[in-house]
Amino acid sequence: MTRRSVVLGFAAAFIVAFVGFPLRAADEPIDYVSINRIKDQGLNSANSQVMEIASWLTDVHGPRLSGSPNIQKAGEWAVAEMKKWGLVNVALEPWDNNRNFTRGWSNDKFYLASVSPQAFPIPGTPSAWTPGTNGLVRGEAILVTETAESDLQKYAGKLKGKFVLGAAPPDVAAWWTPPATRYTMDELDRRETPVTPEFGVTPPGGRGGRGAQPAAGRQGGAGAAPGPPFNRNAFFLKEGVVAIFSTSARGHGTYTIGGNRANDPATTLPAITIPAEQYGQIARTLAKGIPVTLEADVKNTFHPNPTMFNVVGEIRGSDKADELVMLGAHFDSWHSSTGATDNAAGSAAMMEAMRILAVTKVPLRRTVRIGLWNGEEQGLNGSAEYVARHFASRGAPPGPPAGAAAGGAPGGGRGGPFELKPAHAGFSAYFNIDNGTGAIRGVYLQQNDAVAPIFRAWMEPFRTIGMTHLTISNTGGTDHQSFDAVGLPGFQFIQDGVEYNSLTHHYNLDSWERLQPDDMRKNATIAAAFAFLAANREEKLPRKPMPAAGGRGRGGQ
Q: Are 81 and 93 in contact (CB under 8 A)?
């Protein structure tokens, strides 16, 4: 298949040719000598340190739940490493606003097993910010699928000391499609040139997110009576339930985990997620009228008022040192595994990118800074705090207050006018990695057409390792949004999915073994090169128009 050649613009002129040939800016200089030094350091397995960095962040200091002792230790380790590489201004930079992280949390012990009629171990993970069992406890399991307050009254006085399975066991389908995938060239082409549907024609459905079972204890169902929703977990807590179990229809020993940092341990029920296989075995045995006895010893610790921070460090530039290029990734993870692809992969790649720039000593006109963000999993908190402190925040909207403010734009504002900091003008670009271990295949342009011909030229040295495509589309749920929301050029890379959406994103299998070493080396190298090219470009990267005041903030993944 061919495309006609056209010429667009002057400085942004580029050629459209055969599929697979890059659309390239005609006037964008590339220092191939420095690029080759970066590639030799980053792609050569004898030189690369990205997998060793990832091992420290996962095997030694994972998981890195926001506000936990582990993330504090991981941050201290990262600071020490970057200082060894010669970075300056390296620090754990505390937030100005703790954003409701009033309690840290850690799981210090987990034991769960069936005692009778069959003895077997039960793997699982407690939800974050829920209490433990306060020692070894033993009790019968019971299946409670009712959600309405009136239906639950039949259990009054009958649940003390019991383990509740809070929903019917799911049907677990076979994995009919491969759990690991890479983009084909056709799929990348479709991302680059999306089809706009004709007026009146319903467009095909987009790729949906993963399904999830309703959280145990959540009041559901249409036609519910008006008034405050019934809190099923509060009923269980009052009745003396030991813990409530949930599971995942994904099965195959996998499940996802989460937690609510606003939980009050005095009024929260211990919550544990277990695999569908063990959950189903217990439920089916109960359905036969056979009692099932379980025992558990779960120790969870709450840590009051943790210090919330971001990890920062930089390599100072030369003649344009007051201007800034940033690399970043979120540093925190969930806790059912060690947080490898989400997001030690991005953090390790960006740390390695900084190491590459430091050890190769390639010239940098602008300062290059790394930001590793805390609290991303609860809504882009760390990057939003950083952007508000250094670049721009939103003031209160004009007019009288309208009651409780809604969740806000980056910086903690509520949709009022921008308050720009001096550093806003000198900012060039932010590049983010947060889509797992998969190799970088291109860049989401965030509707910034002007950067397309520039990035086309920058991708040329990396075509041979698979970086070939751009898409004008936005992508969400990553920390580049905190920058984009205040008018700064912020970009997330297009990455191969590999196992991200099927096995690792918030799953209990997200360990170091799921990282792909060759992909990790590619990603660190590309990030280093893009930082180098942005730092040395004569002009800063072009910007979109500033967002209008009153726009809503975006939430995290």
A: no
pLDDT single digits (tens) 207-222: 333 333 333 333 333 3
Instruction: Enter the CATH code of domain 103-174+214-304.
Output: 3.50.30.30
Side-chain half-sphere exposure of 384, counting CA atoms within 13 A: 27
Which residue from 134, 137, 136, 141 is spatially nearest to 118, judged by alpha carbons?
A: 141
Q: What is the number of residues in the chain?
A: 557
Instruction: Give 23's Cβ-side CA count (13 Å radius).
Output: 24
Average pLDDT over residues 270-277: 98
Specify which residues 259 forms β-bridges with: 128
Number of CB atoms found within 10 A of residue 357's CB: 28
Predicted structure pTM score: 0.89
CATH superfamily of the 32-98+307-396+429-536 domain: Zn peptidases (3.40.630.10)
Q: Where do the domains of the chain lie?
A: 32-98+307-396+429-536, 103-174+214-304
What pLDDT does 230 receive? 85
| Residue environment code for 528-551, b if the CB has 16+ CB neighbours within 10 A, otherwise e | bbbbbbbbbbeebbebbeeeeeee
Residues near 445 by beta carbon (within 8 Å), at least 6 away in sequence = 451, 452, 455, 470, 471, 472, 473, 491
Q: Which residue carries 């900091």 as its tokens?
A: 421
Peptide bond into 169 cis (omega under 30): no
The contacts of residue 160 (CB under 8 Å, 6+ apart) are: 239, 240, 241
Neighbour tally for 109: CB within 10 Å: 11
CA distance 401 to 465: 54
With 0-12 CB in 10 A as exposed, 13-18 as middle and 19+ as buried, what is 189? middle
Amino acid symbol at 486: V
